[in-house]
Amino acid sequence: MITVLEHAADLPAEWDDVVGDNLYLRRDFLAFMETCEDCRQRYHLVWDAAGHLDTVFMTYVRDHYNLAMFTPRRYEVTMTFVYVPLSVTRPGIAWGACRDEALAYIRGIRGYAMLLNLPPGDYPGFATGLTCPKCILDVAWPTFDAYLAGLRSHYRNRYTKALRRSSGPTLRWLDDNSEFDEQLYELYEQVYDHSSLKIEKLPISFFRGPFFRILVLSDDDGPQGFVQFLPNGDELIFEFVGFNYATNRTYDTYLRLLLEIVRYGIDEGYSSIDFGQTADDTKLKLGAQYTMLYAALHHSNPLLNSIGKKLAPALQYTPITTDFQVFRATPLAEERPSEAPLLEEPDTEDAA
Questions:
Q1: Where are the extended beta strands (E) located within the chain?
Q2: Counted domains in the chain
Q3: CB atoms within 10 A of CB 313
Q4: Exposed (0-12), middle (13-18) or buried (19+): which is 49, by Cβ within 10 Å?
Q5: What is the CATH classification number for the domain harbouring 192?
Q6: pLDDT band for position 330 (50/70/90)?
Q7: What are the residue boundaries of the BioF2-like acetyltransferase domain, all occurrences included (predicted)?
Q8: Which terminus of the chain faces fewer neighbouring Cβ atoms within 10 Å, N or C?
Q9: Which residues of 55-92 are buried (b: 16+ CB within 10 A; e: fewer)?
Q10: Reported confidence tier of residue 305, pLDDT bands at 50, 70, 90
């Protein structure tokens, strides 16, 4: 049996038990997201034969979604997503034994429906393909200095240069995220506006949420950048970044903020850092590794669904194949220069 609710406040406590460590699907976070954006969200609860809650998922609707976003073409559709609407690396579904019943229900949604950020697996009836992989850095160093020392010289010199360039500005934590003002939000908008892969734009209220930590880099003229991240048990999740493009090359702001995520993750004893799904070139050069994620697409019209299956290989994301060899495997004196250039400035939105 499947029941559908419209508001997170009405979800039973068992919902949180089913979603486990997917904090984006927890009731308190979903309730927070409802205050940020009305996206026609619905919460679906799948009960097993014994009346126990077994599988849950969230749907929301987006108009003008570009189904061909990973290609030069544009094909806008109205899409029902099984996903959390903030560009995170987590799926919008948590399943148990009733997985097939949930997938059958999703296949019955009228028009286009898509599940995002799925693990590898069999999704019968759906067109499947790669979406943006997430970039995960396993934290294996006792200190940030040890992390830098473990890098090959090409990367270590570049990151040391970024730290030196940004030594003048100051770093400070927001004591209360209600301090996130229009000036900081404009820095986020700069990154969004420069993005070649615009996924979704979040309102300022999202950045004022109580779940996050926000670090701000400022000079005498005010904030020049910020980074937002989210603690999740022994994992640190990079959310969003904003910076002033006019001073980014002066301070290496973007790279400095990413390095501060690494520093914080090491200093606070996290096991891993989830750097998200965008600007993967830069994050792989920090030492992160891909975890492949998949999308599953269905259309209620059998002909369009068949076409989707045939086109999926052409529409899917193409991961970077370069092996950047970020860390030293030989004594320092035996290192060879890397042939991979280091990215100076991101060309895409960060989200996570």
A1: 2-5, 42-47, 53-66, 76-82, 93-94, 112-118, 127-130, 134-138, 170-173, 213-219, 222-232, 235-243, 272-274, 289-291, 294-299
A2: 2
A3: 11
A4: exposed
A5: 3.40.630.30
A6: low
A7: 158-281
A8: N
A9: bbbbbbbbeebbbebbeeeeeebebbbbbbbbbbbbbb
A10: very high
Tokens of 137: 């850095």
- The DSSP secondary-structure symbol of 97 reads T
At 65, the pLDDT band (50, 70, 90 cuts) reads: very high
Is residue 57 in a domain?
Answer: yes
Output the six-digit token pair for 132: 């943006």
Q: Contact, 229 vs 352, CB < 8 A?
A: no
Do 100 and 178 lie in one domain? The reply is no
Pick the last residue of a domain from 118, 149, 176: 118
Has residue 130 been placed in a domain? no
Residues linked to residue 232 through DSSP beta bridges, in sequence order: 235
Q: What is the distance of C-alpha 214 from the center of its chain?
A: 16
pLDDT in tens, 132-181: 999 999 999 999 999 999 999 999 999 999 999 999 999 999 999 999 99
- Which residue range(s) make up the domain with 154? 136-290+326-334
